[in-house]
Amino acid sequence: MAVMNRITAADYHDIVQVEEPRVAPDGDRVAFVRKVPKDDESYEATIYVVPTGGGEPRRFTIEEGVDSEPRFSPSGDRLAFVSTRGEDDDRPQLWVLPTDGGEARQVTAVAGGVGSIAWRPDGSAIAFVQQASAEDRQEERDLEAPDNWEPDPPDPRVIDRTVYRSMQQYFDGKRSHVYLADLESDEVSRLTDGDRDFAAPEWGDANTLYYTESVGDDPDDSLEYGIIEHDVEKGASATVHTAAGWATHLAATADGRVAYPHTDPDRATLNQSELHVVDTDAERVTTPTADLDRTLGLAAAPQWGPEEEQLYFTTPDEGAVTLWAAGWEDTGPERVLREDGASIDGVDVGADVVALVKSEWDHPGDVFAITLGGAEQHRLTRVNTEYLDERGVSQPEPVRYEGPDGQELEGWLLTPPDFDPSEQYPLIVEVHGGPHAMWTTSGTMFHEFQTLAARGYVVFWSNPRGSAGYGEAFMSAIGRDWGTTTMEDVLAGVDHVTDREYVDGSQVFLTGGSFGGFMTGWMVGNTDRFEAAVAQRGVYDLTGFYGSTDGAYKLVEGDFGTTPNEEPEFLWEQSPVAHADDVETPTLVVHSDDDYRTPASTAELFYRLLRKHGVDTRFVRYPDEGHELSRSGQPAHVVDRIERIVRWFDGYSEYHDVPPALERDDDAELSAGEGADDTGG
Fold it and tell me: Residues near 233 by Cβ (< 8 Å), separated by ≥ 6?
């Protein structure tokens, strides 16, 4: 029987996301952020609270602006959060709300906005991070901005840094600094200053605040950071340790132990991140993950348990995201929670319970509570039940297959919701980004994969060599060879699944984003296996990427062990553009104008070379979007992107009686088509 309601791209407007769970001090409730598209351009993000003992979630903040970072006070009598509500709808400010009822009070009105908030253990103040320029600090706008003040856009933009923009915005002379908001006087004081970045404030005891400082002759070109111990009463600070890594998350105890992620800076992109703990009194460092061949997950920062003897953290782990616990002096972490295919995207450790956001194959994410050891688990929310009850959701099938070097590889196959094994279906192959990322059966791709399956495609995705979650040797196997090694593993998976009678091996399509975009460009230039392809937010010229990206240029130095000056011809041959003259596959190129992680310049080159070569192609560019378009872009653009992928494939599929997209009106069958700048027809 056919499914009455299939999942569509436009359903994105109806899907609720949950983020940032936080356990109240008494453990009786969990605060979280409920996010849903508000209109075509924006989201509504509101804080909700749900009892851990069972009961319906209730809205805790008003539906105005975008709320984030809910944090209970140490006594639980107040909830601090960050919000864009009020007249200033661009710069998030700090607000505090009584938990027993009453109105929220705005604490800050600072020029650079507020983030990374942390309660002082006595509840008297909140530390936070702000992006502030030297002029902001000189004029003290970082302490309190004048009413109705708006920054003047730079004209011209003068740049004196190695890394001067990231993801979707320019820094424009701003540095991140640490501040303290006194809750009795509502006065803000600046704790750091200078031409360095400070981040990750975390309290030890009520007088000791830890945070990080970027270090090195050129901090932009260094992975090293100092861990600073700051006595807020004396106003004195000192560096207690120096570490290295991509993420600066700290977790501190009252007696001077600080946990942090560490990555060996020598070709760091090929190395796993370890959990380290520095005992500042004894001046020694332990590595609880020394015997764990997994890299730390960045979505959930390490946290101390209630007795401050165990640390909780997540890792990618063979197609799932696992929650671990480890003694700070031990080297044998134990799995607290791992479920096949499930993704844990946020964690908070309370006195008796751990709250987490978990997504699974049958839902895009909800709040769960587990006991500290993981023996008991309770689902606290079902935010998309009404939506999911009316849709056909297909269950992915795990598949294991042998790669060309004999390595066992893991992937998944998703069939249409009214699947009939006696019929045949076209296949869409998805390649993940990173390159050192890992896919599960859930997470941010839930909606896209289900939409493609509902359109009548079988969808295949996998974790080829280079992926995280399978050990350091597996992750580093693509050193100096992104293209060929990954392609061999992906094609081995395609061969494996097309052996099934219901998969039409002559109708195979390809797409991927970021590194997946690189691989799409690489594969269409090195094989004619695919009927059509969609290359998204990709890297197509490694030299152009090295010069235009943000700090991700370290991927070239680390993964390839070189720079454009040292081996220009090698990097050219390792780039998809070098093989563009061999492309025959109809290829749609999708990019965002404000993507500073994989800037559009290399996509422009790839697209032009395809045009010059006579390939069926089109270049779709999204204004006001960055690298995160597929996950958190404007809702209309998120929908439009998926619909354009489907339309491109349908036009070259024998299973869909429609002409190619190039022969149709620009916005035919696109519910949000007017939102895109369709360059090329």
Answer: 207
